[in-house]
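Anyone up for a design puzzle?
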């Protein structure tokens, strides 16, 4: 048995033991959720002359939270067919009714999609994530995790309106082989630099989740393991992104959208270079009935052929036209189907088919 298989089995057993063992802390409020998702995926990677890729995936996401007075603890661990990772571990202190400070590893507040869905596939309607919202190890080119300090607060503007702010400063990911690699609390030996994130949201009604917002990210991404980048003399990338987003529900409709220009300052041994691209998506969801939802998404990224930064991530999906259907089998189970036409810098256009069962326990 390989080391990877032993690690996977040990993690699965640890999850089972955790779910069947009550917390030892005598006071406070505990919540333990297990998100599961599984299914096949098919990619016609190169329609002209390339191979076809068919695979099965299985993801288990354990989310644990603890509240005791002003103290907060949040942890999230992923065990999947292609990864094992401590995604979040945060210690928090609530300083007021609407304010809380955190220390640890958390989701970058500039990525709104992750703030509402985290890694729980059951919570999001679509199976795939937009290019702007992809996690680092799934082809994401923008930081989605940070380790450091996070502050969240809210301010009432009128009788019903709300203004919410989340801002963080911490360790940015490094540029590893074909992907970004966040700071790992369990293996803190990498050479991570700094990152600053911010999200400002306006909610017309604080009792409703409809909102528009502004996001900002500044990161210094150190090259640490990317052979092609090191061969080109690239040492690090200073990245700045400013985006706007919308999350709006109206009766049976829901609209999710974001647009962000990204500037990359490439720090080389001989000379520096700056490139940029703009990416955006628009996702629409419509509830046909209480248990049926049809959805679609358009994504587009410009300057993909002239961005040296995007060349470091040749297999990430930068453009997509997608349609899908979700059926809620029960209160905590769902079956989803997604068909899309996608594009990556290395593979060009290809078709993608995804089928997923997802659930949350208990």
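Challenge accepted. My sequence:
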């Amino acid at each position: 048995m390989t080391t990877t298989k032993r690690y996977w089995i040990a993690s699965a057993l640890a999850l089972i033991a955790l779910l069947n063992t009550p917390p030892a802390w005598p006071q406070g409020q505990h919540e333990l959720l297990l998100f599961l998702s599984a299914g096949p995926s098919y990619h016609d990677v190169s329609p002209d002359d390339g191979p076809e890729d068919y695979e099965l995936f299985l993801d288990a996401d354990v989310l644990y939270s603890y509240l005791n007075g002003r103290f907060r603890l949040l942890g999230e661990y992923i065990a999947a067919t292609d990864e094992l990772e401590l995604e979040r571990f945060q210690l928090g202190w609530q300083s007021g009714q609407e304010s809380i400070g955190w220390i640890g590893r958390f989701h970058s507040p500039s990525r709104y999609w992750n703030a509402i869905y985290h890694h729980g596939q059951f919570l999001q309607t679509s199976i795939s994530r937009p290019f702007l919202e992809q996690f680092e190890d799934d082809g994401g080119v923008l930081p989605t995790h940070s380790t450091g300090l996070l502050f969240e607060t809210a301010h009432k503007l009128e009788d019903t309106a709300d203004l919410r702010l989340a801002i963080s400063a911490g360790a940015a990911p490094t540029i590893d082989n074909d992907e970004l690699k966040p700071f790992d609390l369990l293996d803190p030996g990498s050479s991570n630099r700094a990152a600053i994130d911010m999200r400002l949201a306006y909610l017309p009604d604080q009792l409703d989740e409809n909102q528009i917002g502004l996001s900002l990210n500044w990161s210094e991404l150190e090259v640490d393991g990317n052979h092609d980048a090191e061969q080109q003399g690239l040492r690090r990338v200073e990245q700045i992104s400013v985006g706007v987003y919308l999350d709006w529900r109206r009766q049976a409709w829901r609209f999710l959208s974001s647009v962000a220009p990204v500037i990359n300052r490439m720090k080389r041994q001989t000379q520096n270079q700056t490139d940029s691209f703009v990416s955006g998506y628009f996702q629409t969801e419509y509830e046909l009935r209480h248990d049926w939802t049809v959805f679609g998404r358009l994504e587009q990224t410009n300057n993909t052929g002239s961005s040296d930064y995007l060349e470091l991530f040749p297999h990430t999906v930068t453009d997509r036209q997608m349609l899908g259907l979700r059926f809620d089998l029960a209160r905590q189970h769902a079956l989803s189907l997604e068909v899309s036409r996608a594009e990556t810098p290395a593979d060009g256009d290809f078709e993608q088919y995804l089928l997923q069962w997802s659930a949350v326990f208990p």
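A detail worth pointing out: The chain has three helices and 18 strands.
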